[in-house]
Amino acid sequence: MVKFLAVGGLAILFSASVAAVDYQEHDGMLMNHGDGHLMDMAGGMVMGQNADTLPGGCDSISETKEITVHAGHKYAEKFPGRMFAFDTQEYQFKPCTKLTVHFVNEDKIRHQWMMHGLPKYLYPKGMFHLEVSGPAKISGTLILPPGDKTYLVHCDIAQHMEKGMKAQLKVGKGDGDLPSIPGVTANVIADDYKVGLPELIATAAEADKQAAAAPPAPDVISPAAASTAVPAQPEGFFSGVMVIGLAAGLLLGPYLARKFHGMSASEIIATIFEGVALLVERGVKLLSALLKLVSGNKSNVLPKV
């Protein structure tokens, strides 16, 4: 009997130690990088930290509140088709409330508690942001703006919000409800479980079969294009321009070699430009003489008989 009780006690102690989760505390590890940005080397981050600057329109802090938000896979079990969730999907506070959020990530992955739509003159990018790799805890403080408005709170890690990790925070009376908040508002795109996986696979296979059996579309050439099409002429290795260039090079090569012998590169370039200028000048003179000749012949008057 004593052995049985001893074994039972050890089993209880062992199960309790296994069930206990060791959460890493990041609050004492954060380094202030300015502009409300706190970060540590262990994966914790706070953006938009503001504990003492009142938003425009707030004459004083209306009240001071603290909340603890748990995030993890187990909180999505009550929402069919969801993978991640916060333990609470809706919050409501008075305008100008000083709010401290203690964020507890219970999963062994990274999660965020990110709030959007805040005034950008006070909160960079209009965000207040808590982020940590779990299991861990991290805290941050902000002062809510005045007015009645509903703010989106979510996890921005890829697909975490789409899989259920989102909520809404109402300041004052809020200005309505946001869509697709688990347990609060209906999904914009409702899940459809009427068709099972075998039916979806069969439908996809049938579509692939029909696409493979369809004959390929023939290439269509219009009669006008066919009548005006000119067959491509085979081009020989030696084109006319190439032959002329080779002939000019063979004829002028020896002369240019003697002409440029002993000259530097700059002198060769200057000589080439002088030659080109001379050719242009002579061409202009020749063209002018031809024009005078043609115009002179037209103005001649035949002698009277």
Assign a percent range to the helix content: 25-40%
Task: Report the count of strand segments.
Answer: 13
What amount of the residues lies in strands?
15-25%
CATH architecture of the domain at 21-171: Sandwich
CATH superfamily of the domain at 21-171: Cupredoxins -  blue copper proteins
Describe the sheet with the most strands.
Answer: 8 strands, mixed
Overall form: elongated
- What is the radius of gyration computed over CA atoms, rounded to a whole number of angstroms? 42 Å
**What string, H for helix and E for strand, traces the elements in order?**
HEEEEEEEEEEEEEHHHH
Average predicted local confidence, pLDDT? 82
- So what's the CATH class of the domain at 21-171? Mainly Beta
CATH topology of the domain at 21-171: Immunoglobulin-like
Structural class: alpha+beta
The rounded distance between the terminal residues' Cα atoms is: 160 Å
Largest beta sheet: strand ordering: 2-3-4-10-9-12-13-7
Given as residue ranges, the uncertain stretches (5+ residues, pLDDT < 50) are 14-19
Q: Number of helical runs?
A: 5
Task: Describe this entry's structure for a reader.
This protein has a domain at 21-171: Immunoglobulin-like (Sandwich), CATH 2.60.40. It contains five helices and 13 strands. The longest helix has 35 residues, at 265-299. The strands form two sheets. It has an eight-stranded mixed β-sheet, with no helix packed on it. Strands 1-11-8-5-6 form a five-stranded mixed β-sheet, with no helix packed on it. The chain is of the alpha+beta class. It has helices at 2-19, 197-213, 223-228, 240-259, 265-299; strands at 24-25, 31-32, 38-39, 45-47, 64-72, 85-86, 90-93, 98-105, 110-115, 128-133, 136-143, 149-154, 166-171. Residues 1-20 form the signal peptide. It comes from Methylovulum psychrotolerans. Keywords: Signal.
